[in-house]
Design brief:
This protein is mainly β. It has four helices and 26 strands. The strands form four sheets. Strands 1, 3, 4, 6, 9, 10, 11 and 13 form an eight-stranded antiparallel sheet that branches. Strands 14, 16, 17, 19, 22, 23, 24 and 26 form an eight-stranded antiparallel sheet that branches. A five-stranded antiparallel sheet has the order 2-5-12-7-8. The protein is elongated.
Length: 460
C-alpha cells in the first residue's frame, strides 16, 4: 500500500506541475512571471544571473577557486553583451558567441522554457552544463542526416540507439511560432515534454565529456551544474524561463515510479516476516529495517534470486556502514560467502577522509559506497546529505553488476573480469564469487543504517 501511495503522490505532483505550466502558456512574454513554486531565471529586463561558456566540461570550472571562477565569469560578459540582448521581454541571440549560462548550479530540477526559431535554427539546452536537449528546425533538409526530421526535444548527444536519443513523437510547432518545453531531471534521468507531448521518458543523459577519455576515466554526470542556452548559427529567442528545484523525497518518488513493472515488495514495513538470519539484531523503526546500534550480522530474504534487480531506499547515520548481500547462500559470512557485497557507507564522513579526525580510517576506493566490496570501486560523491533518504537500484545479471544511486550510474562492471591483483585481499578470500543464485540481504556492521521500500524484480 505504501508503494501505491508513493506512486499516487508522484503522479499528482507531476500532473500538478503540468497544469501550472499549461496555465502559464498564454502569459505575455514581457511578464515572465513564474508559476507558483518556480523561480524566474530571466526577469524580462536584463541578463543578470547569467554568464557565458562554450561546450566545456563543467567539472573544470566548478573546480576553480571562487576567485578564479568569478574572474572567468567576468571575462565572458563582453562576449555575452555582443551576441545576446533583451528585446520586448525576450532573450535574443544572433546565432554566435558563448552559450548563456546560469550563475547558479542545480541538482535535480524541473525547468520550463519557451523559445522561437527562424528557418535553419539549431540550438539546444545543456543540463548541468552537459549537451543537450535538442532544438532545431525540423523542416530543414540539410539537418535530416542528423535526425532533425524527428523533431526537437531528444537527448541528441546520447550514443546512437540509446533511449532518449530521438524524441518519441514529433511535437514541434511551425517555425516562427513559440514552442514550450518542460524538462524534469533527477540524477542522470531526464524527461522532456514539448508542447505538452512527452518526447523523452526518464532516459539517462550520458556524459558527453566521456567521449574523448579512456574508459577507465569515464564519469557519471556532475551532481550539480548550470543550465545553458546554446547558440548555433541562427537567431534564437527565449522567454518564460522558470526553474523549480526538486528535493530528495520527490526525486526518490520519481525514480521509484518509473519502469516499475515486475518489482515486488519483499518487506511489509511492519516486521521481518519473510526474512531469516540474525533478525534479533535488527528492528523495525518508522517502517524501515534498522540495524540495532552495536549489533549486526546478516539478514536475508526467504526467496532466492539468480539474475535480478533490487530497488530500495536507505538512510545513513553519520559514518554509517552496512552492505547489500548479493546471492547470499543462507549460511556463512554474508560478505565473503555471497557473490558480492555492495557497500553501503557514509563515505563522505570525516572519519574516512580527514587524517586528523578521531578514529580515522584510511578508506580504500573499493570500500566507498556502491563498490563491489574490496574488489571494484564505484564512483564517489553521489550520496545525499547524511540523514536524507537515498534511492538505489542494483542490477545483477550473471557476473555483471550495475548500481544506480539517486539516478546516477556509479558502477557498471563484470566482476569476473576484474583484475585480482587490484583486490584488497587474495582471490581465495572471496569463495562465493561464482555463486549464481542466492538470497538478498543486509550485512549490518554495528550502525543504525535504515532500509525501506525494498522491492525485487526477477530477471531470469
Amino acid at each position: 500500500m505504501k508503494n501505491l501511495n508513493c506512486l499516487k503522490t508522484i503522479r499528482g505532483l507531476l500532473l500538478g506541475s503540468l497544469v501550472v505550466w499549461m496555465s502559464t502558456s498564454g502569459v505575455p512574454a514581457a511578464d515572465n512571471v513564474p508559476p507558483q513554486g518556480f523561480t524566474a531565471l530571466f526577469d524580462g529586463k536584463n541578463l543578470d544571473g547569467w554568464w557565458g561558456v562554450k561546450t566545456e566540461d563543467p567539472r573544470a570550472y566548478m573546480a576553480l577557486s571562487p576567485e578564479q571562477l568569478a574572474e572567468k565569469k567576468a571575462a565572458s560578459l563582453e562576449d555575452i553583451q555582443q551576441h545576446w540582448r533583451v528585446e520586448n521581454g525576450e532573450i535574443v541571440n544572433d546565432g554566435q558567441g558563448l552559450y548563456l549560462t546560469t550563475d547558479k548550479f542545480y541538482g535535480d530540477f524541473e525547468l520550463l522554457v519557451s523559445y522561437k526559431m527562424v528557418p535553419g535554427s539549431d540550438s539546444g539546452i545543456y543540463l548541468r552544463g552537459t549537451p543537450q536537449v535538442s532544438i532545431w528546425d525540423a523542416t530543414d533538409p540539410t539537418k535530416f542526416k542528423h535526425g532533425a526530421d524527428k523533431g526537437s526535444g531528444g537527448l541528441w548527444n546520447n550514443p546512437a540507439g540509446t533511449p532518449g536519443k530521438d524524441p518519441l513523437v514529433f511535437a514541434d510547432n511551425p517555425i516562427g511560432q513559440w514552442d514550450s518545453m518542460r524538462i524534469v531531471m533527477t540524477g542522470e534521468r531526464v524527461s522532456v515534454w514539448l508542447n505538452e507531448k512527452l518526447v523523452v521518458d526518464h532516459a539517462r543523459l550520458y556524459n558527453y565529456y566521456n567521449n574523448k577519455k579512456p574508459e577507465a576515466e569515464h564519469l557519471p554526470l556532475p551532481k550539480t551544474g548550470p543550465i545553458q542556452l546554446q547558440t548555433h548559427g541562427r537567431e534564437m529567442r527565449f522567454r518564460d524561463i522558470f526553474i523549480r528545484e526538486i528535493g530528495s523525497d520527490e526525486a526518490n518518488q520519481i525514480l521509484a515510479s518509473k519502469n516499475d513493472d515486475g518489482f515486488a515488495s519483499v518487506f511489509n514495513g511492519k516486521d521481518l516476516t519473510g526474512w531469516g538470519g540474525e533478525t534479533e539484531n535488527y528492528m523495525i523503526q518508522d517502517g524501515a529495517i534498522t540495524c540495532q546500534p552495536k549489533k549486526g550480522g546478516t539478514i536475508f530474504t526467504e526467496g532466492e534470486y539468480g539474475d535480478f534487480a533490487v530497488r530500495l531506499e536507505f538512510q545513513l547515520p553519520p559514518g554509517g556502514n552496512n552492505g547489500l548481500a548479493i546471492r547470499y547462500p543462507g549460511e556463512g559470512h554474508g560478505t565473503w560467502g555471497s557473490f558480492c557485497e555492495l557497500q553501503v557507507l557514509d563515505d563522505g564522513h570525516p572519519m574516512y577522509n580527514d587524517p586528523n579526525a578521531p578514529k580515522y580510517y584510511n578508506l580504500n576506493p573499493r570500500q566507498t559506497h556502491g563498490s563491489v566490496y574490496a574488489r571494484i570501486p564505484a564512483h564517489r560523491g553521489y550520496l545525499r546529505p547524511t540523514g536524507e533518504w537515498n534511492f538505489q537500484e542494483s542490477t545483477i545479471v550473471g557476473h555483471t553488476v550495475k548500481v544506480e544511486l539517486n539516478g546516477f550510474v556509479i558502477l557498471e562492471a563484470d566482476v569476473s573480469k576484474a583484475d585480482p591483483a587490484t583486490f584488497m585481499y587474495p582471490l581465495e578470500h572471496f569463495p562465493g564469487r561464482d555463486v549464481m543464485k542466492g538470497h538478498f540481504g543486509f550485512n549490518g556492521h554495528n550502525d543504525p543504517v535504515q532500509f525501506r521500500a525494498i522491492r525485487i524484480k526477477k530477471l531470469d
